[in-house]
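Today's session is about reading a structure prediction critically. Students often jump straight to the picture, but the first step is always the sequence itself: look for stretches that repeat, for charged clusters, for runs of hydrophobic residues. Only then move on to the predicted structure, which in these notes is written as discrete structure tokens rather than atom positions. Here is the chain we will use throughout the hour.
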Amino acid sequence: MVDIQNIFSDIPESLHDEFFQDIFKNKNFQIERIVSKGHFSTKGFWYDQEKNEWVILLKGCAKLLFQDDTKPVTLTPGDWINIPAHKKHRVEWSDPYIETVWLAIHY
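Below is the predicted structure for this chain, in token form.
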């Protein structure tokens, strides 16, 4: 029997910290579910990742800021973005009232 799961199931009730869950991972490729609820990157912190990241926002709303930009990019359900490796970015804001669910593919 095939194991069917739902991207919106089993979200922790308490989200003190942003929730990261590997869905699939090998040495070259990773699919990750991320759940935010009012979370944002700490002041001065920038993600500087070794791999490219394609991310789609499935639920909620969030704002990403890239180090070279002065204005954040707003993501709503269905919006996706491809972030090249070493493109420094941060989460400026995520909806504090509902879970923001992201699906990220690192390659």
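Discussion point for the tutorial: Strands lie at 19-25, 30-36, 53-59, 62-66, 73-75, 80-83, 89-94, 100-106.
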